[in-house]
Design goal:
Number of helices: 9
Strand order of the largest sheet: 6-1-3-2-10
Structural class: alpha+beta
Distance between the termini: 10 Å
CATH topology of the largest domain: Replication Protein E1, Chain: A
Strand content: 15-25%
Number of domains: 3
Oligomer: single chain
CATH class of the largest domain: Alpha Beta
Shape: globular
Number of strands: 10
Helix content: 25-40%
């Protein structure tokens, strides 16, 4: 049933947008290994992030980028290229802020003139070292931004400079979680995984089982119990509260292209890499609504799913929006 509201948080109608995004990413793949990194902020920052989402999310993007580029420059004398995608939830819809990165296994040298492929059986850098540097860069930037933070209610005490510094010291004493590994299925495996979440938020319709006695019952996977599938029942107001935690600030971009894949330099850098690797330039296919429907259903858009007959007059489509 196609009736797009075009809201980027809608769990139902962003599939065509997602598929078009995936097609563009496929055209940018380099013949190299790809790596998957996840950078998570500690739960002690959750309350601060909820009151100051744009500031905290921006710091997260910048701290992760600066950390990865620092290691690339120090160990390989080059610049990495990667896609970052912000997630703010876990399977239970709890507030869990982390950043996924799809990292190409190579660096640009000589100011974008030369490509050097990197190989590693695990990850490009020490995960423990990444965690330490990521933590330091995040906290240092947060300290500089302290004057811009809105700290209300239970956080009002952090308006005092000493209390805020003590809070940061406690954050620094913790181990920050960084997960990283080589993607053995290649870039497509990681991007397909991220594609489930890039153009929708927190939960898909298929996970919601029923609404009964003012409770929403939905499926989730419990990672603490061997990823077993379980069912959670939440009061409808609590369910809506959790879902609304993941609505981003207006116009905030949760997908970013960084390093040699940044939008400003991507075209020239990829062209240079493809030339060096003798790879033919790739062209992204603009996926139309008609082709998309055929791809996922196996039928033409004007074909009856019951009798299989084609309607001689196709449904008029303007800007990918079908009539009601």
């Amino acid at each position: 049933m196609y009736n797009s509201c075009r809201c980027r948080f809608c769990p139902k109608c962003q599939t065509l947008t997602k598929e078009r995004w995936l097609e563009k990413r496929k055209s940018e793949f380099i013949d190299t290994d790809y790596y998957h990194g996840v950078f998570t902020i500690p739960s002690e920052l959750n309350a601060v992030a909820r009151q100051n989402p744009e500031i905290i999310y921006t710091i997260l993007f910048k701290a992760v980028s600066a950390t990865l580029q620092k290691f690339a420059k120090t160990e390989y004398s080059g610049q990495l290229g990667f896609i970052s995608v912000l997630h703010t939830w876990n399977q239970k819809l709890d507030y869990h802020v982390h950043l996924h990165c799809v990292i190409a296994g190579g660096v640009m040298l000589d100011e974008g003139k030369k490509w050097k492929r990197l190989k590693s059986s695990k990850f490009l850098f020490s995960v423990r070292a990444l965690s330490q540097v990521f933590k330091s860069k995040f906290i240092a930037t947060l300290r500089k931004k302290s004057g811009e933070l809105k700290l209300r209610g239970d956080l009002a005490f952090l308006q005092d400079a000493k209390a805020f510094n003590d809070f940061l010291d406690k954050l620094y004493s913790k181990d920050w979680v960084v997960y990283a590994k080589k993607s053995f299925g290649g870039a497509m495996q990681v991007v397909e995984y991220l594609g489930r979440y890039t153009h929708r938020v927190a939960i898909s319709n298929y996970r919601i089982l029923k609404l009964e006695n003012d409770e929403v019952h939905f499926k989730y996977r419990d990672r603490k119990d061997n990823n077993q599938e379980k069912v959670l029942a939440l009061d409808v107001h609590e369910f809506l509260r959790r879902f609304m935690l993941h609505i981003l600030p207006a116009k905030f971009s949760k997908i970013r292209y960084q390093g040699f894949l940044s939008n400003k330099y991507k075209k020239n850098n990829l062209s240079a890499i493809f030339d060096q690797l003798n790879m033919a330039p790739k062209v992204a296919i603009e996926l139309s609504l008609e082709n998309f429907v055929k791809k996922i259903t196996g039928r033409e858009i004007n074909q009856c799913p019951h009798c299989e007959r084609l309607n001689l007059q196709k449904i008029p489509i303007e800007n990918d929006r079908a009539p009601p």
